[in-house]
Amino acid sequence: MKSPGKMSYAILGALVLFIFPSRDGGRVPEWRTAVNIPWGIVLLFGGGFALAHSFGVAGVSKWIGSSFAGLGVLPVPLLIILTSTLMTFLTEFTSNTATATLMLPILGAAAVGMRIDPRIIMIPATISGSCAFMLPVATPPNAIIFGAGQVRVKDKFRAGFFMNLMGIVVVLLVSYLIMIPAMGIDVASFPAWAQGMH
Question: What is the pTM of this model?
Answer without folding.
Answer: 0.67
